[in-house]
Structures are given as structure tokens and as C-alpha cells.
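Give me the fold.
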Amino acid sequence: MKNAYISRRWPLLGLIALGLAGAGCQVLPEKGLTGSADDAVSGGFISPPRLRYGATACAIPRAPFIGGDLGEHGYHFRLSEKNGIAYTCRGGHIDTMHVRIAADWTAYLAARSYRHLMRGDRSFSYKMLADRSRHYVQISYPANWQSLPPERRRAIAREVALVMGPYLAYTMVTWHEILTWHGFRSVGLVGEYQSAFSWEDGYSNLLGTIVAARALRDTEHSYNEAMTIALADEMRKLGVQPADVCERASESVKGKWYTGNTGMFLRIRKRNLDIGCDDGFVTPSLVPDVPGCTGAVPASYPAPTLDILWMHGFSASVETEPHEWEKGKILRIVYPGGRGTRIRPADHFAPIMAHIRQDAARKYGAEYISD
């Protein structure tokens, strides 16, 4: 009877586990979270990162302005995380939710890449939970890959994965911004256009990939601990300010960079369209004349690329296959004849961003566009 009782409840237990996982709760031990952070790449993660939703840098009621205390990072749900909008002298506004989204996807995709590299797989795919698009990776190996000693293969696969992870994550979250610019709604009828390429989003996304890549080389702390340390350290370098300074910085550009007091009536004019297409670097949008930040110079970060894979005899490419209603608008930009079905970030992001730039300048004026 006991066995029958248990067996009848396995479906229920499975549904509970799936529900907890979907909510971001850890339900099974994660190899990638139990050892040191540098072992997370080879240890891997059972589930992709949990859903997180960003905030707005506009000074509206209940806006979550924060200072330098960001709490403890959690790949899975963690009450000790402190998230919201921070202001840094050299990086402008930072959305810590966007930072953590990009960071955890960097770790997850680095681990996924490592697993496929060690198996010799020529391709694999992945998708962001908030989108319907699927991303496809193609890998070309050196001729002697399978004949290398196992230890040498593991070492090379780890280095290649640490290049692939940031690139796959960055192109994925940038694609999400492109989708929302063209009207995609990830949650029901709630539009996300107002947040697409808002002045803090892209830079926050990139910051997440950079912090994660650094954390994944930490040999002394777990991934969550390493992320907590690396993020706090980078925010200090950027000159993070107290929460009240952040709020005043947002208030100072009201009526210029944005208008409105509530989400429904919020209109964002200021957009940062710099994703690194021109010079390979992403430069933040700094609010003018913020107290305590006089003379601050923007800290530009390099956008991830796959270019250095050749050093190990590898090459890789990514294609995105959109399944959203808005796909036609985007595909027509790069396939005027209407025959293409996939986006190649390395080739297509530049013309797509040029099109968005023209659209934004027409709507808001060139003075509100950073690129």
C-alpha cells in the first residue's frame, strides 16, 4: 500500500517541482552551484536561469532606487538579493535585474557550450524563457580534437566555453531588446516598447556578461558568492552612488529623457542604441551634472565576440529563428526579398540597429539617441 500511495503522488510531486523551478526555486542539487565558481562551467546547471523582470530608471512612484548594497546573488530565488536601479558615475544608471539576467545566462550558456564541446556536438540550440525565438549554434572543431589527451581537451573546452557564454547571452538579450522595440509583449497585453533600448538596459546587459565571465574564473568561492563579489567590485569601480543620488539623477532628466508619472503614461525618449556594432565597445549614457560625479568619464566595455576562437582552432556561429508575431517586421529589414527566416547577429544586428536608429530619431529627435 505504501508503494501504491507513493506512486500515485509522483505526478503531483513532479508538478510541484516544475512549479517551483519555474518560479526560480532550487529543487534539486546544482553541480554548478555547489563547488567553486570555476567548476560551474564543467559542472553545469540543471535548469536555465529563472525569470526576472527589469525596472525603469525613471523617477516614478515606487521606483526601486538602490545604492551600493546589492545583497547576495542567487541563481535560484534568493530573498537576500537586492535589486533595482542604481546610479554610477562612470556607467550611468544600472538595472541590476538586467545585470543578473545576463550574468546567469552567461554562466548557463558557458556550461552548455562546454558540455557540447566535450561531446563533440556540431550544433545545439537554446531559448530565453521570456521569448519564443530559438537560437541555433554551429561549431567547427580543429581536426585533431578527438585525439587530444582528455585533460587538454577539458582545458581548451573550458576556455572556448568562456568565450561562447558571454557572446551567446549578450546576443540573446540584445535580440530581446530588438523584439520589444518592434512591439513584442512577453507578458500578455503589457507592452514593453517603452523599455526597449532605454538608456540603461543595453549597458546593464553587457555588464552582466562581463561580471559573470570574471566570476566563472573564481577558484575560491561558489558561483553565487563569486557573482556577489564580482558585481560589488565592478559597481565600486564604476562609482556607485547612494540611492538618493540615483533618484535625484533620474528626476533631473524628467521632461527631457522621459515624461509621465506612471507606467501607463510613461514615455521614454532617451535611448541608448550602442551595442558595439561600430567600434566594438558599448558606452553608457551619463546623466549630466550629478553631484559627486563631476568630471566622470564614461567606462566603455568591449562587446563579446567569437573572434578569438581561432586561437584554439575553433569557429562558431549563431542564428536566431524568431517565432513571434513581430518577426516579419524584423526579417524584412535584412531580407528585402522576403525569403530569409533566420537572423545572424554577426551580420544582421548592424543593419537592424541602423533601422531602429532612424526610427528613434524620427520619433524623438537625434539628440535623444546615444550610439
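Residues 1-24 have pLDDT under 50 and may be disordered.
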